[in-house]
Design brief:
This protein is mostly helical. It has a domain of 85 residues. α17 packs antiparallel against α18. The longest helix is centred in the C-terminal third of the chain and has 28 residues. The protein is elongated, with a radius of gyration of 32 Å. The protein starts with a helix and ends with a helix. 35% of the residues are buried.
Length: 400
């Protein structure tokens, strides 16, 4: 904790100095870039408290917004500092409401006269947006009609997003405080901006909580890519059932996919495989529209289906799909892809105890490969099969 923050906080709490002078001094210190973010946040917090004592609510709001924008919830502060400079979105809500009620009294606006409040706030939007926000903050809480409260929230959030560090402040007020249930009041266009912002900071949790509340892509966005993005965010956030349901719904109404679109879909299905949802991955791979897709793409889809069957220890199904992938374009194919797929098929058959069938494939691969290292691997596989088969015969002789 910086010594000056202790000094000015003590001055403010004991009343030994004029709060307006403390506000001015701490605001100047907070604006200096040579202090750490934590220290600047503390100066802004003192400035906001001093402004409140001085009766300057709009200055208090500005200072608190600056403090919140610098508040790093993961920063290592001592318990004492956290107690002395505790701050969250609820505090800013309270300040906006207090300012709004003060202005309402000044202008003799009566609660219940919604038209008068909206009219006054609307006239202030361009010239004095913070005063308009203060009135909207009051209306979002005290107006009787739910639709009117929702409109006040939308207007407030839109104006707040235009402030310095606006997106951070919207998150503090709507996502990271006790007001989190009001996420539905954020205008949908602003929610899309918040989703992009969260993803740019790898904040999957925030992105998923936001994207669950939007039903349509932003204007100008590719609808299919956006729906895929939504499904992927939910999967990465651990909301697997919702993400899987979104993918089924997407593929249900899709009759064809362009190569770029297919690549995006495949990436989401790979995510499902990564988190171990292989049964669902098989179902979704099987629903992919193959019309217009290249032969290689169809081979790849069969291969990934085989991978998921193998992970489920359904070795017979896995081998079948690996072999389908290998021979889709030519039943006798032995190109690099076909060799890899056949090798995987043989491994699946071996794991399933079908040694004879596995051996035939290994021997066929040994006949066509020219790589010395690969020949060694295949000979080892064939030897393992011979050992397994002999052990099986020995056991039968003992049982007899």
């Amino acid at each position: 904790m910086h010594s000056r923050t202790i000094f000015y906080l003590a001055q403010l709490l004991t009343g030994k100095a004029d709060p307006e002078k403390i506000r001015q001094r701490t605001s100047k210190l907070a604006a200096k870039k040579n202090f750490s973010a934590s220290t600047r946040m503390q100066f802004w917090t003192i400035s906001s408290r001093a402004a409140q004592q001085a009766g300057k609510l709009e200055a208090a709001i500005v200072a608190m917004q600056n403090a919140l924008a610098l508040l790093d919830e993961n920063e290592d502060m001592s318990q004492r500092e956290k107690l002395l400079f505790a701050l969250d979105g609820d505090d800013l809500w309270a300040l906006y409401e207090a300012y709004g009620r003060y202005l309402g009294n000044q202008w003799q606006l009566l609660m219940g006269n919604d038209n008068a409040w909206f009219s006054k706030a609307s006239n202030l939007v361009d010239k004095k947006p913070r005063q308009a926000m203060a009135l909207f903050a009051v209306m979002s809480k005290d107006v009787g009609q739910a639709r009117t409260r929702a409109l006040a929230h939308e207007l407030f959030a839109s104006l707040l997003s235009g402030e310095k560090n606006g997106l951070i402040l919207v998150k503090k007020l709507y996502l990271h405080s006790s007001q989190v249930d009001k996420i539905r009041y954020i205008p949908e266009g602003l929610r899309h901006r918040l989703i992009d912002d969260a993803l740019s900071h790898s904040d999957i949790k925030t992105a998923s909580s936001l994207i669950r509340t939007v039903t349509e892509p932003p204007k100008g966005a590719n609808a299919l890519f956006w729906k895929l993005r939504k499904a992927r965010i939910m999967i990465l956030a651990g909301q697997l059932d919702e993400g899987i349901a979104a993918l089924h719904l997407l593929l249900q109404g899709t009759t064809s996919l362009e190569p770029g679109q297919m690549d995006r879909v495949m990436q989401v299905l790979f995510d499902l495989q990564t988190v171990g949802r292989h049964k669902e991955a098989v179902a979704l791979f099987s629903k992919l529209p193959l019309q217009g897709q290249s032969g290689q793409m169809r081979r790849e889809i069969l291969y990934w289906i085989a991978d998921s069957y193998k992970e489920q220890k359904q070795y017979h199904h896995a081998a079948r799909y690996y072999l389908l992938s290998a021979g889709l374009l030519n039943s006798q194919a032995m190109d690099p892809w076909a060799q890899t797929a056949r090798y995987q098929a043989a491994d699946a058959l071996f794991s399933g105890g079908e040694y004879e069938d596995a051996g035939r494939i290994y021997k066929r691969l040994l006949d066509v490969t020219s790589e010395p290292a690969r020949k060694v691997v295949l000979r080892n596989k064939i030897q393992q099969i011979w050992l397994q088969s002999n052990q099986g015969n020995d056991r039968k002789r003992v049982q007899r």
